[in-house]
Amino acid sequence: MPSAVSGPEAHRYRLSGTARQGFALATWGFFAGFATVALYGPAAVLFQDQMRLTGVSLGLLVAAPQITGSLFRIPFGAWVDRAGGRVPMLTLLGLSLIGVWGLVFILATTAAIDFRLYPVILFFGLLSGCGVASFSVGIPQVSYWYPQSRQGAILGIYSGIGNLAPGLFTLLLPVAIETWGVMGSYLGWLLFLIVAASVYAWFARDAYYFQLRAQGVGADESREIAARHGEELFPKESVWHALMVAAENPRTWGLMVLYFVSFGGFLALTVWFPIFWVNSYHVSMVQAGILGGAGFSLLAAVIRVYGSALSERFGAERVAVLAYSIVLAGALLLTLGRSFCLSLAGEMFIALGMGTANATVFRMVPRYVPEAVGGASWFVGGIGATGGFMLPPFLGAVVDALGRRGYAGGFFAYLVLAVIALIVSSGFCRIGMQRSGPAGGQH
């Protein structure tokens, strides 16, 4: 591969790769890994029928990929500051690949899936979900390639493209199941992951600083050489110190609450809406995939780009208040709605609100935790995303308690969460109004 730098340093140190290449491959790895959010959600009703799952068991199953995907965000994001992004990303994709392979093996060798296989299928869901943590690897991987003046725009594109993956797979998996069957569909997913990991392994390059460090060059000399070739951002000396400083700032926890509701809530509903549509309105699995994929997940991912532009113009705090108000309206429609049209309207309101809110949170991080932006980003992204695995089992428990009415009643949780997020975002808005200048850029 041709080097992006020229002269004796490029020849001596074998520096290779470009910023565009770093961005493209990080985005590709994130897209491939993040798709596993939708591993079980679109096909959940099939597993529910065959294994006779309770609501809680079903909620835990569809949430399994989010458990590892959320908890691994902090350690793998921190690992990038030591090893660059390539090895952590390949590790996550490799673990995800093993998980999908295990699921394919179970489906191929078992005539009928019953509840005795539930722990095994749950375990392979946990493994598969490791790819969801690729978000926290790709963010710094891209950041180290680009000057700080361009990071807001480029990371917005990175997040927007990667967040399309769950919606697309929610759309495609039910169609694939009708065409190829369950085993054939997951085999196709496995092949996709093999190709994705292979492409990433072949073409991905770390930023120049990490290439130099891997060749044994000292930290100070590596910074000097990389800086001469355009690199502006370098890892901090103490990752855990940044985490501790961020944890001591109460505003970090406020931002974490906002991200729990918007992004954690988004992950949970991505896997729950297909179940909701099938069991509440008896639509087909393909129709549920369209409603959950295009009607919610893709809409939320696309609107995130516009939410970023609104935050830039009007301030992230004000836009957050508006966004969580829309989430509140959507949750109210879903909770009280007794018709297909009202429920669909509620789903779309929540998608618009969550997509917009997702764009605001990381724009506030450098504004309110300037002394530890990296540490705050890891906390907010990692712990905030845990909503993705905490909420589906709760929604399932409401179904167990109320029966079919519980599918609508469970959205009361989102009413409560939206109110909490409104209170927190209003607090940030008041603080922001006392300051001058626009909200901080996305990290």
Question: What would you say about this model in short?
Answer:
The protein contains 21 helices and no strands. With 443 residues, it is mainly α. It has a single domain, classed as Growth Hormone, Chain: A (Up-down Bundle), CATH 1.20.1250.
Describe the structure.
- This protein is mainly alpha-helical.
- It has one domain: Up-down Bundle (Growth Hormone, Chain: A).
- The chain has helices spanning 8-13, 19-34, 44-51, 55-71, 73-83, 86-109, 118-128, 134-145, 148-162, 164-203, 208-214, 219-228, 239-248, 250-281, 285-314, 316-336, 340-368, 373-384, 387-402, 406-409, 412-433.
- Helix 2 packs parallel to helix 6 (86-109) and helix 14 runs parallel beside helix 18 (373-384).
- The longest helix is centred in the middle third of the chain and has 40 residues, at 164-203.
- It is globular and about 65 Å long.
- 57% of the residues are buried.
- Residues 437-443 have low confidence and may be disordered.
Oligomer: single chain
> Main β-sheet: number of strands, strand sense, barrel status?
none
What number is the mean pLDDT? Answer: 88
The CATH homology group name: MFS general substrate transporter like domains
Computed over alpha carbons, the radius of gyration is 22 Å
The fold-level CATH name is Growth Hormone, Chain: A
